[in-house]
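Summary of Year 1 activities. Much of the first year was spent building the evaluation harness for sequence design. The harness presents a backbone, in tokenized form, and records the residue chosen at every position. We chose the following record to illustrate the format because it has been used consistently in internal testing since the harness was completed.
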């Protein structure tokens, strides 16, 4: 894919650096570009890759000399200079497309997971189930390790299965993944500062199904149902319909085509949205031939992820739950719906152009008050105005924790589920979680 081409790697975060390392490993002629290359970064990269020139400033000027642009997820393919590059015959790809090309003639299976919410939990669960079932498993992508870094760590050695969490940003530059099984878990508003509208965002997610993949689709989500491909095996999962893999709300049992799988109460993960993630994970794993009895046994002991509807502790009967990884409206809606009342919600941060009005319906009658923090607190307050719930502005997260606790009674939940990115006040969602836990410990 890259041999005998002049390759420019744009965006020199962890993904871009892994692509340069791959190019160095296989002997491809490459260069690196970042709009803002610090002196320290440049010195570090020059030391690691002395054979590769580095550029910053105008991308348009640099692109003139290259055949292939390998784009990091943080950069959109829709920049005018990149569109011009493609129009004159330049090729734009991402690291996931390179991996797909490397694996196409090998026996390695690919399970690919996208969606607005739940993809990290589902990817972690699928990876865990594959490992426990005895497969040589690689978990990579949006979940942590860039895919080419994972490939290099293995020295290019074949794996039984690659479990890939893929964001819309990664799928933008992956025209043909050809996974064995793939899912889009759900679609809700996210990254609308990057896409024209929700439909445009959903179309990008749909690229995960390009190839032969067995499709695993959310029967409760209209956008996901619309991704159905003709002449393709399909499995559905649902929390509200008796279809394929589903939750029987009467018996409280997870079922497949009427057959009992396990009681919902046997799932260690908090919240009903995690039942949907478990159903999707089961469908994906069974699609690549894993044994059901083993899968059900391992689901019962899977503890889930930090910062994703995770119980932090209790103080005088008040339960504190950390959902700092809930960085969009859909995630926060899912957390509220999945937990029992009464909830005191802490939300806010960088809103990424989202509409917060979908929160109005789930707040009413279930949430006592919303404690708003961060740069987009006024925007959230405007969207939630007159929703029947008190909106309380707080300067800091510890202040929000203190004020929520002061209003909560024994049996209530204080929930940090920001529906926003964290970078206005914190180093990331994990740092936001640390501050929340510290504030809880100080009560």
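For this record, the design step produced the sequence shown next.
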């Amino acid at each position: 894919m890259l041999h005998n081409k002049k390759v420019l790697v744009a965006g020199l975060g962890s993904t871009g650096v892994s692509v340069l390392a791959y190019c160095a490993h296989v002997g491809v002629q490459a260069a690196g570009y970042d709009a803002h290359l610090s002196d320290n970064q440049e010195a570090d990269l020059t030391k690691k890759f002395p054979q590769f020139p580095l550029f910053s400033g105008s991308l348009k000027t640099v692109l003139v000399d290259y055949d292939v642009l390998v784009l990091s997820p943080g950069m959109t393919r829709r920049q005018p200079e990149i569109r011009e590059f493609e129009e004159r015959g330049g090729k734009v790809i991402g690291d996931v497309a390179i991996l797909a090309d490397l694996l196409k003639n090998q026996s390695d299976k690919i399970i690919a997971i996208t969606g607005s919410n739940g993809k990290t939990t589902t990817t972690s669960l699928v990876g865990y189930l594959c490992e426990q079932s005895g497969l040589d498993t690689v978990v990579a992508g949006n979940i942590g390790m860039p895919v080419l870094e994972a490939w290099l760590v293995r020295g290019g050695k074949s794996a039984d299965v690659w479990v890939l969490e893929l964001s819309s940003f990664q799928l933008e530059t992956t025209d043909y993944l050809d996974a064995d099984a793939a899912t889009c878990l759900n679609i809700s508003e996210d990254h609308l500062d990057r896409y024209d509208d929700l439909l445009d965002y959903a179309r990008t997610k749909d690229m995960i199904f390009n190839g032969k993949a067995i499709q695993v689709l959310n029967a409760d989500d209209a956008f996901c149902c619309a991704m159905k491909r003709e002449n393709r095996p399909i499995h559905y999962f649902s929390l509200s319909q008796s279809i394929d893999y589903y939750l029987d709300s009467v018996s409280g049992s997870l079922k497949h085509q009427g057959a009992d799988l396990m009681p919902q109460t046997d799932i260690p993960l908090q919240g009903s949205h995690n039942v949907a993630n478990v159903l999707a994970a089961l469908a994906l794993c069974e699609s690549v031939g894993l044994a059901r009895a083993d899968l059900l046994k391992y689901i019962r002991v899977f503890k889930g992820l930090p910062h994703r509807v995770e119980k932090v502790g209790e103080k005088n009967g008040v339960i504190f739950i950390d959902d700092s990884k809930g960085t969009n409206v859909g995630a926060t809606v899912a957390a509220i719906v999945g937990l029992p009342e009464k909830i005191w919600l802490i939300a806010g941060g960088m809103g990424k152009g989202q509409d917060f009005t979908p929160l109005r319906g789930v707040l009413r009658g279930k949430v006592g008050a919303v404690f708003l923090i961060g740069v987009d607190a006024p925007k959230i307050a405007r969207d939630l105005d007159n929703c029947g719930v008190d909106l309380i502005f707080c300067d800091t997260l510890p202040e929000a924790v203190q004020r929520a606790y002061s209003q909560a009674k024994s049996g209530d939940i204080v929930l940090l589920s920001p529906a926003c990115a964290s970078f206005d006040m914190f180093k990331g969602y994990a740092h936001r979680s640390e501050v929340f836990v510290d504030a809880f410990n100080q009560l």
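The mean pLDDT is 94. Quantitative recovery figures across the full test set are reported in Table 2.
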